[in-house]
Sequence to fold (89 residues):
Amino acid sequence: MESEKNRVESQSEALGDNGQFKIEHNVPIPQTRVLGGLCKVLSRMQIGDSIVIPTRPGRTSAHVLAARAGIKVITRKENDTEIRVWRTK
Fold:
């Protein structure tokens, strides 16, 4: 165990952090944010369903998240602040 501590300390010195970074253990990962919620909604949609989302996160995020979920979407601008996303496959 002591050798592991020395290895970590020597890596820290080699990286030049000079002790400015603190390694923390057992910190829980927070729940997903807006994009994670969007991914869940997209995967629950049936073909032909649509949702309106803010321009930010936007069109690109909708397409990327849909692709990760293995589905296809098409987007259209609703107004200056929102876009509509349809599931197509």
